[in-house]
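Suppose you are handed only these lines of text.
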Amino acid sequence: MTSHDRLLLQGLSKHYGRHQVLRDVSLEIERGCFLTLLGPSGSGKTTLLKVLAGFERCSAGRLLLGATDITRLPAERRTFGLVFQGYALFPHMTVAGNVAFPLKVRRWSRQRIKDRVQEMLDMVQLGHLAQRRPAELSGGQQQRVALARALAFEPDLLLLDEPMSALDRKLRGDLQTELRRIHRQLGTTFIYVTHDQDEAMTMSDRVAVMDHGQLMQVGAPDDLYERPDNRFVASFLGRSNFLPVERMRRAEGGAELEIGGAACRFAGPLPDRQDGLALMLRPENLVLAAEPPAPGWNELPGRVLVRTYFGDRTLCEVEVPGVGPVSAYAPPRALAGLAEGDPVRLHWRAEDGALLPAT
Ligand SMILES: Nc1ncnc2c1ncn2[C@@H]1O[C@H](COP(=O)(O)OP(=O)(O)OP(=O)(O)O)[C@@H](O)[C@H]1O
Ligand SMILES: [Mg+2]
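From them, the structure of the protein bound to magnesium ion can be written out as follows.
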């Protein structure tokens, strides 16, 4: 096994009894990639990670590291580092002892272990706490020791299952930054599980969105956000509006749409189907206006329903006849003269949004 190879998941399925937890998961993970598995609770993220680690056997499919089939290779022979939830530090060992453990198992020499432990603890900025026991550390410090222990033996791949779920927001942020720095520094492949979309978007090179054991879409964070393939991905990542499309006609550079009885233009990629579509628009694509739209922009009329103040911006919900409530972000000052119930126009550019199946 060399560390220069990509990990290939081919049609992985997993059943627990009659319950299918993974459905035909295929994915290619380049070496050095930071890939995040993102999905709601119960979508199969941990199960997939366990299959990759070798703790669970898949019911069908193959797992290849480079050209080597490792589907049936036992966990202890896979050179993968693990940071799992509840995969605790050894309480009776010091911090240094914990990091040294996987190296002793691998029979590294005493001097090499000493140097490596120092190097790893410096990397997670805990060199000064080497002689403490885990109970004498904060949660975030313990997580960093777990990370140092998992990376100490230079694994081909690091598997992390919601390693930060128990931490407060500030500590999470700090550790996220640290994890990205370590990833850049080492160039090890990271496979990271979370159900936190912000974490997935900010940390990853690529995100694989899962639902009900299935991969719904895989791509760079901005790809998934701006060009979701389906409604699940669009609504799982960020806020989105789905405007039912009453009619669609292909036209030069895109399509003519009818939405809420109004004619609109769409200038993005068109799906194969012509009916049962919705136009997905992000709240930041919509502009609240008093004037008619500029050329190249679309318009729908509505009335202000609710305003939610976020400090840096305000989320404004607008009732659009024939469509329903539509959410738009606006700078707080733009709404100065507007009260709930006031008429308002919603504008967006023909290039914005995506045409997706409505259901
Ligand atoms: N050992 C098991 N036996 C039977 N069913 C299981 C077992 N482990 C997990 N499952 C089921 O498999 C499905 C996927 O579980 P999994 O732990 O992979 O989800 P997850 O995406 O990691 O969720 P969470 O975000 O809550 O951690 C769930 O419906 C779960 O109940
Ligand atoms: Mg899980």
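What can we learn from it? The chain has a mean pLDDT of 92. The chain has eight helices and 21 strands.
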